[in-house]
Design goal:
The chain is mainly β and about 210 residues long. The chain is built from one helix and 17 strands. The protein folds into two domains: about 100 residues, Trypsin-like serine proteases (Thrombin, subunit H, Beta Barrel); about 80 residues, Thrombin, subunit H, CATH 2.40.10.
Amino acid sequence: MRAVVEVRPSKRISAGPRTPVASGREPRELEPRPSRGFFIDELGHVVTSDQRLGGATSVEVTLYDGRVVEAAVVARDRLNDIAVVRLERRGLPSIALGDSGALAVGERVLAIGSGGGLDRAPTAATVLATGASTGGNLAVDLTPKPDGVGGPLLNRLGQAVGIVIDSAVSTGGTRPLTFAVPVDRVKSTVRNLMPGPIAELPGRAEVR
């Protein structure tokens, strides 16, 4: 799935204050934890998890072929854990946006890129809830994997119907549980926060 990418803040996150410590050693810096993301159009816009960006305004995006490209954060919705970043690249593969409102409990979906590194292998899951009992989010029986945060859930047509978020937990029972933001909410965020008008084409959000 070439439209799925890895996103991480451009600057490292400091583990402590920059003032010297008693030992005289500089406070160590931590590598930011990367998130998944995916292109939503051919104009270089990527949707990902906002929480993982840690307030960063610039990020590094690792493409399917291993190239690392600088990108800017152009829109964010912290309430729904959604961010949109833009690369100065055109014509890259993208994933069409589907209709999360049409999902039914029991329907099968695919989570893309839930493994580590640049893994983009699909993992099958079943929709357990569509929003009413989960704070408006989707719930699927997918084992929570931190590396999959920000990645897409796809329906049987290959369209994105959700974005895996960082509030994934285990039920403690026999079935795992992971939450995802419905893509219809993502469309609203893109429409309201992205600069310029957004036109919805069948199965795709496009920036004019």
